[in-house]
Amino acid sequence: MKVGGIVETALYVSDVKRAADFYRRLFGFGTLLESDRLVALNVADKDVLLLFPEGATGEPFAVPGGVIPPHGGSGQGHFAFSIAAEEVEDWKRHFESHGVPVESVVEWARGVTSVYFRDPDGNLAELITPGFWAFG
């Protein structure tokens, strides 16, 4: 028995519409679900980025099949999206054309590159090329 991967990543944001618009505009993510409680964005047809309003998920939430337990987060989070190594410069230009500052670029061992930027809520997002984590 083993886990198959991470399906969802959740961010808690001050303005869900603003955050969703930012990720849609910057990455072209499609919307899987949009409600007063959350926005779920499609990341590469295999992962989901959940955007919750800060403080809005602190109570249990009944759904037709059961109850989602309370959860939440505060402060600036961090997550990373994978990109192809040959696209690093294209992504940096894409960010510049969308007015999104690149906060840092790190050249790691084994030729891996990370490009760091922040979303409107100050979450630190990263684009990283393959090879940083040695799996297998």
UniProtKB/TrEMBL annotation:
Domain VOC as annotated: residue spans: 5-130
Entry-linked InterPro entries: Glyas_Bleomycin-R_OHBP_Dase (IPR029068), Glyas_Fos-R_dOase_dom (IPR004360), GlyoxalaseI/FosfomycinResist (IPR050383), VOC_core (IPR037523)
Domain of life per record: Bacteria
Protein name, as recorded: Fosfomycin resistance protein FosB
Protein source organism: Aquisphaera giovannonii
PROSITE patterns: VOC
